[in-house]
Design a protein that fits this description.
about 260 residues; single chain; TIM Barrel
Length: about 260
């Protein structure tokens, strides 16, 4: 099992702070953001920026297993506007190159908020967009890891329709709480189908409040049992609340998770 934290302003304004502090805490890796609607400002959009991410990882002895594509919650593959869907695909094709250059294997493709797939039509648009990008991902050794509000059986139906080894699922045990899903059962279903790429660790309430680990509605013993039963030994990324003292708080969250899963 390997443990990652999410880079960002919780660790300071300079992105190097994320790598330095994550290394000091004892994380194995960092999940790197790709969030801005103005995507050309993102580090992973340029060759120089992507190489800088790789250099920082090497400097601080970390891996960068995944990129969190949060911008796709606003301008994504399930948009009703075809121009936005076209943009989503074009940006993804560029992001795949950036992640490959940075040594990142998984891109979290988000389907939340405005881009939640809450209709059959939006699911079909999601399939179309990911299917278009999958060949490029295959050629660059990158996996498009889908995360959103639909249940496991919908993910399996989408992946079957897309028919690419470069597509999988990024599962969040905290989101399962407010969505009303059986997180441990879904982990088992996705693992049995061979599509579980990575796991987010966070604790949430039914009204979508991100809580300190152990203070929300996640059944942690059941989650731990499922992760152990399926033999998962990849990355778990802690999407835990930010605080004024990340060195202490994130170290506490890491200790909680290691005690749970170790």
């Amino acid at each position: 099992m390997k443990y990652a934290t999410i880079a960002g302003r919780r660790y300071g304004e300079d992105i190097e702070d994320s790598f330095r502090i994550a290394s000091e805490i004892g994380f194995d890796g960092i999940e790197f953001p790709f969030l801005a609607q103005d995507y050309e400002t993102e580090m992973l959009w340029t060759v120089e920026g992507a190489r800088r991410v790789r250099e920082l990882a090497e400097q601080y002895g970390l891996e960068v297993p995944s990129c969190i594509g949060g911008r796709y919650n606003l301008r994504g593959f399930a948009a009703e506007d075809p121009e936005i869907r076209e943009e989503a695909a074009e940006v993804m094709l560029g992001l795949i190159d950036g992640c490959a250059e940075a040594g990142i294997e998984n891109i979290l493709v988000a389907f939340f908020g405005q881009m939640a797939m809450d209709s059959d039509q939006k699911v079909e648009w999601g399939i179309e967009g990911i299917r278009r990008c999958a060949p490029k991902a295959e050629s660059r050794g990158v996996v498009l890891a889908l995360e959103g509000t639909v249940p496991a059986d919908t993910w399996l139906r989408m992946i079957e329709a897309i028919d690419s080894e470069a597509v999988g699922v990024y599962y969040d045990v905290g989101n399962a709480v407010w969505l009303g899903y059986d997180g441990p059962a879904e982990l088992r279903t996705l693992a049995a189908a061979g599509v579980l790429r990575q796991i987010h660790i966070k604790d949430m309430t039914v009204d979508k409040q991100n809580m300190p680990l152990g203070e929300g509605g996640v059944d942690w013993p059941a989650v731990a049992a499922a992760i152990k039963d399926i033999g998962y030994d990849g990355y778990v990324a802690l999407e835990t609340p930010a605080s004024g003292d990340p060195l202490v708080e994130q170290e506490t969250y890491l200790e909680f998770t290691k005690a749970l899963l170790g």
